[in-house]
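Protein data sheet
==================
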Amino acid sequence: MRKLVYIEGMSCSHCVNRVKGAIGELEGVISVDVSLDEKRAIVQMDREVSDEAIKAAVEEWGYSVTSIETA
């Protein structure tokens, strides 16, 4: 299962690492690939992780989730 998470507010590699770590800690997440240029994260999961949980993890660090799509 894979989701695309579109994120605003990232400006550097430190931001990318924070977002990657925040999403990566969620139960069910296998891997996270964050692109600063594309302003998105590709989240691989072995079970359903709610959009709300992903959004909360990202927004806890001060970034905004603009949309989440199932890919």
Summary: Strands lie at 2-8, 29-35, 40-45, 64-70. The domain at 2-70 is CATH 3.30.70.100 (Alpha-Beta Plaits).
